[in-house]
Specification:
The chain has 114 residues and is an all-beta fold. It is built from no helices and ten strands. The strands form two sheets. Strands 2-10-9-4-5-6 form a six-stranded mixed β-sheet, with no helix packed on it. The protein has a four-stranded antiparallel β-sheet with strand order 1-3-8-7, with no helix packed on it. A hairpin with a 6-residue loop joins strand 4 and strand 5.
Length: 114
């Protein structure tokens, strides 16, 4: 049974940092491209970052380059999203998703506000 369990997130002031975790079971994260997506209120879901299978090549949407880092810990079968220098525009619900599957994490709220 495939499960994606997210943790992390919360309320942080502008300029702060958070780390999101996506712990997988039922499949091996190293075998899939894993993406982090977010959905802000009233907006469509957008891709934020992704990490390729095996070689770990990463990609980021322009607005988070230099601030967010996606990483994978194969021993823990977990993918992380490290978010630094957060901005109010980063507010939204964040989801992890293995490409080519119908599986999504349960979503984690990130709120950046003073």
């Amino acid at each position: 049974q495939v499960q994606l369990v997210q943790s992390g997130g919360g309320l942080v002031q502008p300029g702060g940092s958070l780390r999101l975790s996506c712990a997988a079971s039922g499949f091996i994260v190293d075998h899939y491209i894993i993406g982090w997506f977010r959905q802000a209120p009233g907006k469509e879901r957008e891709g934020v970052a992704s990490i390729s299978s095996h070689d770990g090549t990463t990609h980021y949407t322009t607005s988070v380059k230099g601030r967010f880092t996606i990483s994978r810990e194969n021993g823990e079968n977990t993918v992380y999203l490290h978010m630094n220098n957060l901005e109010p525009e980063d507010t939204g619900v964040y989801y992890c998703h293995p490409q080519g599957t119908d599986y999504w994490g349960q979503g984690t709220q990130v709120t950046v506000s003073s």
